[in-house]
Structure to design on (700 residues):
């Protein structure tokens, strides 16, 4: 599976482990609830760890753990749920998170530009054939009225 | 007025290109109805009863002659020769073809106009006082701050998918002419005890289904903190505003459900964390202010004697001056209203011919600028008194000089069932009937200041809940009925109208309105206004007469 990361189409090494599935080796991401529950076990695993956050989650809840987390997935249940945009801004702007922030789930190609401006640097699209157009959408505008987060 | 620089121009041109691409994707079936709906709304495109409707931004109501001519051209080329001015100082076209909208946007971009964020669940066009910069009761001109907010809101990446629409209004005068107490955020320029000017910030006001008067969240905000404070409110709203029910998603519900104390605590906490990074530098404020510098007024304009003479000789002109012009801060100048409420024309509508003619009049008499008002009229804000007579003659010939500003026929009216897919009942035809019944100007002027607002559904686009007389169209088993309210106001002493009684049938609305006005004429004290009388006597005297035969 391929994704966009740092303005390039690259192969993806991560896999998401559902709450009811066994943890596995390699780079895995889990839900925020799972992270809280199995934190100690996850920290001992051999791969990198990511946490998936939904719109209703609070970013503050993992602020103290950010050094242990290499990937944060911001998961859109529906494209119109704009809380994700504030979560991204808070992760970068308030908590100075330096790892990968990836948009996942049901978002649109037309949102990647705004997402990139609030700090999202990776995009996992529903259809991989949309990756090239989504990549080009990162350049929809060359000027802005507001500061970008990074 | 503000002139675009290269950044402004580039941004709107790139937005046109983006929307052209989005429209093409939709027409080819590459994106879903649902997705395109969100995208088109953020560019002012609704799908209406007959055709798409395109809403164009009138930034804080300010337009120049070139822009008005462009609207005329669009009306002729892409629409049915007219356009409509809205209560939030925007402009609507009712008949464009979807595939032509990118071309219209390109035309608009050529005169520094756009349709960005004129609808959708995002930060909308900022509205303001239509007499900004010229009125006699001004603390400071709000327009530079409106422009700063316009830029900040435009394509804001974090706040493009809010729980619901978000409207900001700014007033810089003692009398609130911008209905700021009924906006998601209302900003008032005020003096503090030290004599400095800053903003009183109100939050959580709104009309629609649940009309609520905004509350003060910050009594005095230093100007340099304007954008950080807005950002703090928006971030709290974006994170915590309800998304489960679109009728409970406006910020007014969040404020109401959390309580003002809790809500303002959240905002304050957020604001303290960001305020130092988002300061508005004084030189930036000054640079924008410079774009709103006063025009080259003639210093001897007040010496003209013809103005007084024409009023003595021509009573129709004198009446027009009395009702359709307003005091100006410069001696010898007045602001002249262009009434878009002629008896035989839908409220707020203007033809291409009228638009072109008004553009010429603006060039000739008012430094090439035109403003649109919250009550759906236009203003030439800087007219020398010597020019008022020829201006009136020309407006009269264009049917734009009905001397009814601030009177019962200066109705705010939504497009209603005739155009809008949300409407339950028609409003334009009812407005016409009321207009016909009040065709005696002497009677109308005797009644004086009465604001009638009429909406064709409870979304309340015509602000019926703050009309002195509010009329709301409702659907009752497939028939059009109308709910009346009395005593609403969107000015300083803001109030939500009280329901008069059961809804009346369509053919009874005009009779009800004239009955209400007759009760007022008979029972008012001396020079008591309609609104004052309603406050004094309550609704019962009106109710008794309106429902006398039931």
């Amino acid at each position: 599976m391929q994704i966009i990361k740092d303005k390039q189409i690259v192969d993806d090494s991560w896999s998401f482990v559902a709450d009811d599935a066994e943890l596995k080796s390699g780079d895995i991401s889990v839900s925020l609830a799972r992270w809280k529950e199995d934190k100690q076990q996850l920290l001992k695993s051999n791969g990198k760890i990511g946490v998936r956050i939904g719109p209703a989650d609070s970013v503050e809840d993992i602020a103290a753990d950010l050094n242990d987390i290499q990937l944060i997935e911001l998961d859109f249940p529906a494209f119109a749920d704009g809380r994700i945009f504030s979560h991204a801004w808070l992760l970068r702007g308030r908590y100075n998170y330096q790892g990968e922030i990836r948009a996942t789930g049901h978002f649109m190609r037309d949102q990647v530009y705004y997402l990139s401006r609030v700090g999202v640097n990776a995009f996992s699209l529903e259809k991989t054939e949309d990756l090239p157009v989504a990549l080009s959408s990162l350049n929809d505008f060359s000027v802005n009225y507001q500061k970008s987060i990074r | 007025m503000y002139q675009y620089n290269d950044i402004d121009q580039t941004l709107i041109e790139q937005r046109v290109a983006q929307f052209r691409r989005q429209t093409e994707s939709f027409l080819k079936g590459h994106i879903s109805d649902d997705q395109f709906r969100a995208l088109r709304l953020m560019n002012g495109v609704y799908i209406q009863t007959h055709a798409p409707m395109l809403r164009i931004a009138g930034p804080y109501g300010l337009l120049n002659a070139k822009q008005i001519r462009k609207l005329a051209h669009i009306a002729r080329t892409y629409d049915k020769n007219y356009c409509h001015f809205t209560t939030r100082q925007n402009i609507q076209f009712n008949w464009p073809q979807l595939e032509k909208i990118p071309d219209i946007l390109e035309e608009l971009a050529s005169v520094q106009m756009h349709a960005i964020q004129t609808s959708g669940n995002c930060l909308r066009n900022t509205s303001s006082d239509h007499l900004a910069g010229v009125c006699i009761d001004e603390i400071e001109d709000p327009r530079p701050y409106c422009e700063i907010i316009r830029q900040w809101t435009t394509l804001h990446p974090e706040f493009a998918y809010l729980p619901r629409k978000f409207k900001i209004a700014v007033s810089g005068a003692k009398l609130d002419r911008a209905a700021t107490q009924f906006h998601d955020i209302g900003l008032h320029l005020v003096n503090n005890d030290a004599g400095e000017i800053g903003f009183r910030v109100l939050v959580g006001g709104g009309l629609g289904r649940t009309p609520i008067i905004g509350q003060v969240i910050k009594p005095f905000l230093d100007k340099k903190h304007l954008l950080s404070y807005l950002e703090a409110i928006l971030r709290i709203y974006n994170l915590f505003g309800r998304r489960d029910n679109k009728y409970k998603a406006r910020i007014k519900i969040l404020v109401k459900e959390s309580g003002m104390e809790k809500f303002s605590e959240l905002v304050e906490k957020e604001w303290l964390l960001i305020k130092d990074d988002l300061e508005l530098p004084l030189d930036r404020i000054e640079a924008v202010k410079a774009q709103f510098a006063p025009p080259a007024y003639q210093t001897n304009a007040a010496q003209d004697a013809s103005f007084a003479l024409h009023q003595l000789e021509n009573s129709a002109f004198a009446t027009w001056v009395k009702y359709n012009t307003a005091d100006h801060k410069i001696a010898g100048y007045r602001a002249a209203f262009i009434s878009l409420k002629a008896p035989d024309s839908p409220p707020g509508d203007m033809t291409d011919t009228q638009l072109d003619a008004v553009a010429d009049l603006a060039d000739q008499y008012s430094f090439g600028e035109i403003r649109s008002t919250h009550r759906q009229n236009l203003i030439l804000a800087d007219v020398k008194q010597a020019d008022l007579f020829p201006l009136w003659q020309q407006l009269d010939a264009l049917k734009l000089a009905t001397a009814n500003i601030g009177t019962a026929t200066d109705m705010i009216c939504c497009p209603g069932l005739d155009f809008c897919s949300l409407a339950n009942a028609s409003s334009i035809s009812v407005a016409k009937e009321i207009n016909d019944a009040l065709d005696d100007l002497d009677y109308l002027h005797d009644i004086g200041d009465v604001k009638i607002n009429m909406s064709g559904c409870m979304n309340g686009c015509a602000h019926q809940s703050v009309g002195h007389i509010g009329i709301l169209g409702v659907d009752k088993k497939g028939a059009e009925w109308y709910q009346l309210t009395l005593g609403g106001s969107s000015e300083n002493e803001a109030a939500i109208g009280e329901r008069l009684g059961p809804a009346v049938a369509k053919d009874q609305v005009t009779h009800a309105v004239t009955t209400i006005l007759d009760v007022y004429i008979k029972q008012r004290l001396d020079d008591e206004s309609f609104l004052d009388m309603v406050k004094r006597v309550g609704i019962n005297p009106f109710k008794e007469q309106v429902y006398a035969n039931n």
Notes: The domain at 2-18+26-137 of chain A is CATH 3.20.20.70 (TIM Barrel). Chain A touches chain B at residues 55, 79-83, 85-86, 89, 94, 108, 110-111, 113-115, 117-118, 140-146, 148 (CB under 8 Å). The two ends of chain A are 26 Å apart (CA to CA). Chain A is about 25% helix and 20% strand.
